[in-house]
Specification:
The chain has about 280 residues and is of the alpha+beta class. The protein contains 12 helices and 6 strands. The strands form 2 sheets. The chain has a 4-stranded mixed beta sheet with strand order 3-4-6-5, sandwiched between helices. β1 and β2 form a beta hairpin. α6 crosses α10, α10 packs parallel to α12 and α11 packs antiparallel against α12. It is elongated. The relative contact order is 0.13. Bound molecules: zinc ion (ZN). Zinc ion binds next to α6 and α10.
């Protein structure tokens, strides 16, 4: 009997450790074997540990948090809302061919910054401040194509992996085990959210790849890709001397960016099928 109590007591004492062990096992299970795959359009071989499902969970958590915090700013009617929904739907339909499991959704927030982003898994946020700058539907399609490309090419997951934060991301998904606030902030910054942590966001090569994929996406969605060149020119002039928004951030030179976009135009034009109305 003495041995029994000793064992039971031992189990009780060990309970926090058991809880940690179970949590660690859950996190371990969430981390499926990393797999090799290719990015859409550019066909770059990449290596991503977080699954589509995990990326969706991570993105959805962040999306829910954003919508909670900015509930009063959500625009849900009017011409701006209608335009964003209409253009986003066409870009999403194209992106869904590359990522059929992602659940695509766009929310327009009343904010003065010219910004837009797409979270891993397909949740898009657009600020009203970007609308005067995009000018037309093709301009908006250029921005959305670029943002959505970051999600289909799994750029956030790549960065999370490169910074050895996959386990932290997985524990956020599992319910916040063994995550310090600093680690949490780091992962959120890598998701590409907001404007506070610009230095932590996508790499230059990922930005360039998003330009390339985005250009082809807008063409596939029925928007003339040649209009992207004028758009980027306007954008880069408008953002001179200011904190650059996501889609204009971290580029070595504006001129190089435009030159590269022109280089991808023939490929995009081959993908272009004009839509009855744009
Ligand atoms: Zn970008």
């Amino acid at each position: 009997m003495k041995g029994f109590w000793k064992t039971a007591l031992g189990l009780l004492v060990a309970r926090p450790l058991i809880a940690i062990a179970i949590a660690a096992a859950v996190v371990g299970l969430l981390l499926l074997r990393s797999h090799r795959q290719k990015t859409p359009v550019t066909h770059r071989a990449q290596h991503v540990e977080l699954t589509d499902q995990q990326q969706m969970q991570l993105g959805s958590q962040q999306y829910a948090k954003t919508l909670r915090e900015d509930r009063a700013r959500i625009v849900s009617s009017g011409p701006d809302y209608a335009q964003v929904q209409r253009v986003a739907r066409r870009i999403e339909a194209v992106a869904a061919r590359d990522k059929p499991r992602f659940v695509w959704k766009v929310t327009l927030l009343r904010k003065k910054e010219a910004n837009a982003y797409c979270l891993p898994g397909g949740k898009i946020v657009v600020y009203t401040g970007i609308l005067p700058l995009v000018g037309n539907n093709a301009g908006l399609a250029t921005v959305l194509g670029h943002e959505v490309a970051h999600a289909t090419a799994e750029h956030a997951a790549e960065r999370i992996e490169r910074e050895h934060l996959t386990r932290v991301a997985a524990s956020i998904i599992a319910g916040g085990v063994a995550v310090t606030p600093a680690q949490y902030v780091h992962v959120v910054a890598l998701l590409g959210v907001g404007g506070e942590a610009a230095s932590l966001r996508f790499s230059r090569s990922q930005e360039s790849e998003a330009d390339h994929i985005g250009l082809v996406y807008m063409a596939r969605a029925g928007y003339d890709p040649r209009l992207a060149v004028g758009f980027w020119g306007r954008m880069l002039r408008a953002s001179k001397g200011k904190q650059p928004p996501e889609f204009a951030s971290d580029h070595p030179s504006d001129e190089h960016r435009i030159a590269r976009i022109k280089g991808w135009l023939p490929e995009a034009e081959r993908a272009y099928r004009p839509a009855p109305s744009s």
